[in-house]
Design goal:
Elements (H helix, E strand, L loop, with lengths): L1 E5 L10 H7 L9 H17 L3 E7 L15 E7 L3 H11 L3 H32 L3 E2 L12 H11 L8 E2 L5 E2 L3 E9 L10 H4 L10
Antiparallel strand pairs: 1-2, 2-3, 3-7, 4-7, 5-6
């Protein structure tokens, strides 16, 4: 059982513009100039307010959790966050009645932490490849058949979440909110499904997060 820590200066994160507009309910090419200007402003603020940090550990146990069962290799658990400054600024804008800017900045924060999780996942894949292993798509507690409560308990009891400033609430939500926890299964012989997304591998068809 091995734990490897990574800190904020290890990560450079570039949020995807198209995803930000998708979160705002539209497409960049259809956005009016006023919205484009607001998104540009939110992107600059998001860059200045975000502090990307992550920690992950590689474990040779599934912890008795069916969703983590992996007969072909180890399990990676990870916690990623961009810190609390951005969400504090979102609340500030909301309190001042600047709801449009608050919404745009919140979307930037959501996409930034998602991009961070993808960046960490890519690093995991690279390190796995160096060991002759392949990585399945990442998946998080609360998605598919992995219960939020049991998943968060496992992740937070086996990683040093305090190293990246993330705490777990009594309802198993993370603080700061712009944080993502996830797991990755590693396997010595990559199955054909590795080309699929995690949504294609999941059998929960009515999930509101399905892509």
């Amino acid at each position: 059982m091995t734990t490897t820590l990574f800190h904020s200066d290890d990560f450079s994160v570039v949020p995807r513009i198209g995803e930000i507009y998708r979160l705002l309910g539209g497409r960049e090419e259809d956005a009016p100039e006023r919205l484009r200007d607001m998104v540009d402003e939110a992107l600059l603020m998001g860059h200045n307010l975000s502090k990307p940090r992550a920690v992950y550990g590689i474990f040779d146990s599934d912890f008795g959790e069916p969703a983590l069962r992996n007969d072909l290799g180890p399990i990676v658990l990870s916690i990623c966050t961009i810190g609390s400054a951005l969400e504090e600024k979102v609340r500030e804008f909301s309190d001042k009645g600047q709801f449009a800017l608050a919404t745009a900045l919140d979307a930037v924060g959501s996409e930034t932490v998602e991009s961070l999780a993808d960046t960490v996942d890519a690093r995991i894949c690279e390190k796995a490849a160096e060991e002759g292993l392949a990585a399945w798509p990442r998946f998080s507690p609360g998605y598919g058949n992995w219960a939020l409560k049991s998943g968060q308990k496992i992740i937070f009891s086996h990683l040093f979440a305090e190293k990246v400033g993330v705490k777990l609430s009594p309802t198993f939500l993370m603080n700061p909110l712009k944080s993502i926890s996830f797991a990755v299964k590693l396997t010595a012989s990559p199955p054909g499904e590795l080309e699929a997304s995690i949504c294609e591998l999941c059998d929960k068809q009515d999930c509101s997060f399905r892509r």
